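Run log // design_07
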């Protein structure tokens, strides 16, 4: 699923980015492996008790997954480093890629249906996800259906991506990326409140809840500062066909 997600993200970003298309390929080439490394490092830092106590434990991705916060952080950071090295406009590239990231994350979440991960509290709703007994939390062994949090995230991400596309050209760069940070984090606040899988807790609350709240506030403040700057009307990530012909 990861490979499909990256390919789709590259296609979307190339359609939206008005600069050199090869830069998108370069960012993906560097950002994807960096995202995998960042995701694993975050998982090791926040869920160390789930890592096998052997020398190869930190590398055993089949014994414990990837933390999406770490994956996004390191993947985006390395990708933007490549943009900076090429001398391209950083805010424009960030806004061009924001919807693509959300679509890619949605594709990646489809894998949670197959491995029965990222589900929430028990529910009797018609769309409740049936979880095999071996994947259920101990306190819910007598319950069969749970909230499909991964499905909620897929729907949210695609809706947010559509909103960002709709706002393209109406918001100063990197305002769309700031909304991506705030919007995705807002969903994660909801998700962390209903998830029941094992997690590191602080003051009785899941660690990732605090991360989501901090990033949501950061994204909103960032957007407010970008939108509040006095400037001319924002330019879309991709120039119109007419302007390209005239230039």
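design_07 sequence
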């Amino acid at each position: 699923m990861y490979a499909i997600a990256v390919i789709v993200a590259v296609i979307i970003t190339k359609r939206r980015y008005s600069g050199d298309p090869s830069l998108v390929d370069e960012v993906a080439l560097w950002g994807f492996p960096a995202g995998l490394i960042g995701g694993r490092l975050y998982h090791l830092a926040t869920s160390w008790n789930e890592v096998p106590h052997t020398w190869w434990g930190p590398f055993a991705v089949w014994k414990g997954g990837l933390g999406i916060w770490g994956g996004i952080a390191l993947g985006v950071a390395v990708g933007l480093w490549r943009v900076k090295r090429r001398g391209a406009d950083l805010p424009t590239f960030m806004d061009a890629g924001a919807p693509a990231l959300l679509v890619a994350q949605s594709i990646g979440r489809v894998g949670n249906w197959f491995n029965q991960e990222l589900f929430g509290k028990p529910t009797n709703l018609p769309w409740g996800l049936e979880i095999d007994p071996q994947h259920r939390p101990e306190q819910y062994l007598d319950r069969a259906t749970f909230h499909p949090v991964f499905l909620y995230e897929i729907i949210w991400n695609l809706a947010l991506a559509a909103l960002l596309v709709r706002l393209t050209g109406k918001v100063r760069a990197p305002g769309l990326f700031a909304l991506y940070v705030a919007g995705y984090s807002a969903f994660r606040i909801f998700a962390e409140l209903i998830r029941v899988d094992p997690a590191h807790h602080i003051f009785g609350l899941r660690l990732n809840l605090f991360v989501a709240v901090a990033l949501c506030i950061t994204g909103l403040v960032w957007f407010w500062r970008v939108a509040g700057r006095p400037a001319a009307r924002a330019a879309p990530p991709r120039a119109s066909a007419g302007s390209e012909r005239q230039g």
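Residues 20-87 form one domain.
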